[in-house]
Amino acid sequence: APRPLPVGDWNVQVRFAGDPEVRPASAHARVGVYNTRASVAGAGVLRPGKRTNGSFRVTSNGRKVKGTVRFRAPGLNLRANRFTALGVGKRGRAAWFTGFNRKGKRFLAYAEDNSRRGKRDRFRLWVGSTRIAARKLRSGDVRITTQRASRVKKK
Fold it and tell me: In degrees to the nearest 10, what's the CA dihedral of 131, 136, 142, 144?
């Protein structure tokens, strides 16, 4: 499975080999990946599946990311407090964060804040290359708060 890009500026090339119905294609782009000054939290117990539940709270000041993630699913008891990135989409409705659990295994989470009470919110979680959760929440609420960057006055 593809891994998230670390923070920094990257040259990205995407290729599609084509198939009987669509011709091959490719594209190049320069992509900037930056930590966002933001806070992302799951209010209440998040239940993206019948036997999957957990919570998270992740914050970043734009340089350092910290927080906690706890999720349980059949065969999984994820506990993490080591993060490498937090990003929030332009509209402030979607966020992703990544890091490592206590055993050093990488995880990636994606959350959408689509409503005030969480009825249309979504949460997706991968541990290693295994997808653990990927659906609308049955309960709980995703909350994303962005902080405006302070402007530095020139002397």
Answer: 80
Mean pLDDT of the chain: 82
| Cα(75)–Cα(59) distance, integer angstroms | 28
List pLDDT tens digits, range 66-79: 999 998 888 888 89
Contact between 101 and 79 under an 8 Å Cβ cutoff? The reply is yes
Q: What are the two backbone dihedrals, phi and then psi, of residue 90, each rounded to the nearest 5 degrees?
A: -55, -40
Pairing of strands 94-101, 106-112: antiparallel
DSSP 58: E
Q: How far apart are CA 57 and CA 62, in angstroms?
A: 16
Write out the two tokens for 89: 């989409």
